[in-house]
UniProtKB/TrEMBL annotation:
Lineage, opening ranks: Bacteria, Pseudomonadati, Pseudomonadota, Alphaproteobacteria, Hyphomicrobiales
Protein family (similarity comment): Belongs to the DNA mismatch repair MutS family.
Keywords assigned by UniProt, alphabetized: ATP-binding, DNA damage, DNA repair, DNA-binding, Nucleotide-binding
NCBIfam families assigned: mutS1, PRK05399.1
Record organism: Acuticoccus mangrovi
InterPro entries: DNA_mismatch_repair_MutS, DNA_mismatch_repair_MutS-lik_N, DNA_mismatch_repair_MutS/MSH, DNA_mismatch_repair_MutS_C, DNA_mismatch_repair_MutS_clamp, DNA_mismatch_repair_MutS_core, DNA_mismatch_repair_MutS_N, DNA_mismatch_repair_MutS_sf
Protein name: DNA mismatch repair protein MutS
SUPFAM superfamilies attached to this UniProt entry: DNA repair protein MutS, domain I, DNA repair protein MutS, domain II, DNA repair protein MutS, domain III, P-loop containing nucleoside triphosphate hydrolases
Length: 871
């Protein structure tokens, strides 16, 4: 057996091997230790290997799912080896022969299909990447439900796409450098040969049974390669029983707002920075089903950039706001509806249970109920939902409802799940089962009478089957009767059997075997029908998800007093009395939130949008204001209403937001370095259609360095002409507003009252002259002596401040555009710098520590300065 175990382990070295032994999955050697730690189970030993005891741990098969869930949560993949023959068969080959076993499945985070292991309100995407520097292909599949999409992206877009998809498992070629990913993503490496582009398209077409992949859309080579790699990985891990995938769908990149990873993180769109913190999604989610919640998460993660799509979604929300009865009816119908496509996936993969078929049935019924509850007024999207949903429950739904009994709802139902009246032979077998049971009762009474033993009972257990039991004291009476033959003596009772009982037993067994196999045949036929109807069920489920989201957005719009935004082409950005949806929801009394306006729309006759520099005290509400405007843009383009009295927004094609800075020491980058890398990305990528939100850029270094960087960055953004909000504590920056027509100053109002400050959270035109940092520090509970001392120091500094002189100097700076042409020409090859570059070329970048790299960079800068005669 150990030889077999080791052979399987050698074939599947990655992951924990669940080796089936009877009613247990057992783990040996290192796996046993790993399992014991990961599952808090006991590790013992069993037998010896090369003279050493073999460590062993085990989990019962019936509790396997629960253990799988815990292992998957710890990013541990599990290889499942099952017994593939009856142990009796193996015995026939000889007393010592080993039962045949085979790996039937490898369970990984991106390939699970079990209801209990999946979060109902999140897609669990498996993502593969192919290609390289020239461009990447990405394939993404929600394996449980079979949704499958392909897309292409550039090298710089890779990180943003991965952040948008937010996969649970990523398959990448060995050696490919990946962007920074959150630790919750499991990264699996495979040899580059699995991602080859040659013939990928033809092989992928073959996997989907078409002659040409073009049947599903126009895909590039790298997209096909990523798609094929995903299919191959599924084959590798799911062996024979891979759940079906939809044909690949092209995800058009131009249709969604580009939001990079850092922006998503700083705005906490769908993931909070604190484990239990609120997100935009959690604050606004009023969906009533898992599929609706998944769809809303997608909408928030990928806001549209198509004006017509957005308007159609707003139209749909509008009718549900206007018709509260329809809204309530639809929500009642969809409440708690199961994820039909995941159920279909399990059924198709041969892992389904009667409850999955029942889930499909209930979902189809819910679709029909929802269709009936739709409002009378139907704009295009609602009409499309209505048409599709009205096809449900359809012939399939009716058949499922007529065939399945309520008992199918229980987990692991093995019998009794087919309703009465469906199949005559099944009903007959059940009658026989029932009659036989009644017959047992009658026989017991007969035997009691014939023997005179009132305590005589007819009982059943798994070992003996049916038997007659009498208290030990009465055993002799029965020994005397011919018909009763002895089976077993216990301390207090003696057990017998009779010919009549044996005969009865075989009839009961035959009847229940018969009933069970009839039920299985009926279930198999249902499964085949469901799988055949998969595309139709997918279309119905899609509309249900859409409907749930639409009604939910109407619900939150009413509850939180949101209004319909106007989303149009162009660069407008006009928000009247905007609010922050998450901060407002967190306030005990939502009316305490102070609404604020924002206007970045280009001035009359100007082609470029405007920027606002926001100054004001700490805790004044600057970050809240910046974020709320970004969130309003996201909500509007996701098709939602917005927390504002009015909003008019020209489509935002890219959103950048940097709020504060965090370090990434693990990747060898200090706080300031991270901030600068991110600022570089913004300045290089932002175009006129972008919305840029910058909060305290440059604060992580010496004041003058930070101020200079902030100044230059703001000038650059103003040249690009993108809509910009810039919060800062560098009051000198406000001088820019006087010199640039497209820059305005705004400040957060505060009142000073007996040496304390009162935050009014109100944005008003103008610039703040101070930050009230010391007052805020006092409010935070800094020791009084330290506060007093800080006041002294501040007073001294302010006395000697040459702030006014500095501002005058800065006002004298030549304009940015005049000093630096937008496309900066490369400096003439500097002699000294080029020598240094040559020297750097000889270094192995992989062996370089981040510190050494930074030092080398500074050397390079210095050398260039020498070349340019500056040093
Ligand atoms: N418009 C508002 N109405 C009511 N409360 C607000 C509003 N804006 C902000 N607040 C409250 O003030 C707190 C501080 O706001 P915020 O973090 O935006 O200040 P800040 O000016 O960015 O501070 P710092 O400069 O210290 O980073 C928030 O947590 C929130 O509770």
């Amino acid at each position: 057996m150990m030889a077999q175990y080791l052979a399987i382990k050698a074939a599947y070295p990655e992951g924990l091997l669940f080796y089936r032994m009877g009613d247990f999955y057992e783990m040996f050697f290192d796996d046993a230790h790993l399992a014991a730690r990961a599952l808090s189970i006991h590790c013992t030993t069993r037998g010896t290997h090369l003279g050493e005891p073999i460590p062993m741990a085990g989990v019962p098969v019936h509790a396997a799912e629960e253990h799988l869930a815990r292992l998957i949560a710890q990013n541990i993949r599990v290889v499942i080896a099952e017994q593939t023959e009856d142990p009796a068969e193996a015995k026939k080959r000889g007393a010592k022969s080993v039962v045949a076993r085979e790996v039937v499945r490898v369970v990984t985070p991106g390939t699970i299909t079990e209801e209990r292991l999946l979060d109902p309100s999140r897609a669990a995407l498996l993502v593969t990447i192919a290609g390289g520097k020239g461009g990447y292909g990405i394939a993404a599949a929600d394996v449980a439900s079979g949704r499958f999409q392909l897309l292409a992206t550039s090298e710089e877009g890779l990180s943003a796409e991965l952040a948008r998809l937010d996969p649970v498992e990523l398959i990448a070629p060995d050696g490919l450098t990946l962007p920074h990913l959150p630790p919750r993503v499991t990264v699996t490496r495979r040899p580059p040969s699995m991602f080859r582009t040659s013939e990928a398209s033809a092989r992928l077409a073959e996997a989907f049974g078409v002659a040409d992949l073009a049947a599903f859309g126009a895909f590039s080579e790298v997209e096909a390669a990523a798609g094929l790699a995903l299919v191959l990985y599924l084959q590798e891990t799911q062996i024979e029983s891979a759940p079906p995938l939809d044909p690949p769908r092209k995800d058009a990149p131009g249709d969604v707002m580009v939001i990079d990873a850092a922006t998503r993180a700083s705005l906490e769109l769908t993931r909070a920075s604190r484990a239990d913190g609120p997100t935009l999604l959690s604050a606004i989610d009023r969906t009533v089903s898992g599929i609706g919640a998944q769809r809303l998460a997608e909408r928030i993660a990928s806001p549209s950039t198509r004006v017509e799509t957005i308007a159609a979604r707003h139209d749909a929300v509008a009718v549900f706001i206007a018709d509260p009865e329809a809204r309530a009816g639809v929500r009642r119908a969809l409440k708690g509806v199961s994820d039909a496509m995941r159920a279909v996936g399990r059924l198709a993969a041969g892992r389904g249970q009667p409850r999955d078929a029942l889930a499909v049935c209930r979902a189809l019924e819910a679709a029909a109920t929802a269709a009936a509850a739709l409002p009378a007024e139907r704009p295009a999207l609602v009409a499309a939902m209505g048409e599709r949903l009205a096809e449900a429950p359809g012939e399939l739904g009716a058949r499922l409802a007529a065939t399945l009994d309520e008992r199918a709802a229980s987990a692991n139902a093995t019998d009794g799940y087919v309703a009465e009246g469906v199949d005559a032979a099944l009903d007959e077998a059940r009658v026989l089962q029932n009659e036989s049971r009644r017959f047992v009762a009658a026989l017991q009474a007969d035997y009691q009478q014939a023997t005179g033993v009132r305590a005589l009972k007819i009982k059943h257990n798994a070992v003996l089957g049916w038997f007659v039991e009498v208290p030990a004291g009465h055993a002799d009476t029965l020994h005397g009767i011919d018909d009763f033959s002895h089976r077993q003596s216990l301390a207090s009772a003696v057990r017998f059997t009779t010919d009549t009982l044996r005969d009865l037993e075989s009839r009961i067994l035959a009847a229940s075997d018969d009933a069970r196999s009839r039920e299985q045949a009926i279930f198999a036929a249902l499964v085949a029908d469901i799988v055949a109807a998969r595309p139709w069920i997918a279309a119905v489920a899609d509309k249900m998800a859409e409907l749930d989201v639409t009604a939910a957005l109407a619900e939150i719009a009413v509850a939180a007093r949101w209004t319909r935004p106007v989303v149009e082409e162009g660069l407008a950005f006009e928000v009247a009395a905007g609010r922050h949806p998450v901060v407002e929801a967190a306030l005990a009394d939502a009316s305490r939130f102070v609404p604020n306006d924002c206007d970045l729309t280009p001035a009359e006759g100007d082609a470029k949008a405007r920027a606002t520099i926001l100054t004001g005290p700490n805790m004044g509400g600057k970050s809240t204001y910046l974020r709320q405007n970004a969130l309003i843009a996201i909500l509007a383009q996701a098709g939602a209403y917005v927390p504002a009295a009015r909003a008019r927004i020209g489509v935002v094609d890219r959103l950048f937001s940097r709020i504060g800075a965090s370090d990434d020491l693990a990747a060898g980058r200090s706080t300031f370095m991270v901030e600068m890398v991110e600022l570089a990305a913004i300045l290089n990528q932002a175009g006129p259609g972008a919305l840029v939100i910058l909060d305290e850029i440059g604060r992580g270094t010496a004041t003058f360095d930070g101020l200079s960087i902030a100044w230059a960055a703001l000038e650059r953004l103003n040249e690009i002409g993108c809509r910009t909000l810039f919060a800062t504590h560098y009051h000198e920056l406000t001088a820019l507003a006087d010199r640039r027509p497209r820059i305005a100053n705004a400040t957060m109002r505060v009142k000073e009252w007996r040496g304390d400050i009162v935050f009014l959270h109100q944005v008003e035109p103008g610039a703040a002259d101070r930050s009230y940092g010391v007052q805020v520090a006092r409010l935070a509970g800094l020791p009084a002596a330290v506060v007093r001392r800080a006041r002294d120091v501040l007073a001294r500094l302010e006395e000697s401040d040459r702030g006014a002189a500095r501002a005058a100097l800065m006002a004298d700076l030549p304009l940015f555009a005049a000093t630096v042409a937008p496309a900066e020409p490369a400096p003439a090859t500097p002699h000294c710098a080029s020598r240094l570059v040559e020297a750097l070329d000889g270094l192995d970048p992989d062996a370089l520590s981040p510190r050494e790299a930074l030092e080398a960079l500074y050397e390079l800068k210095a050398a260039r300065a020498v070349d340019q005669g500056e040093g």
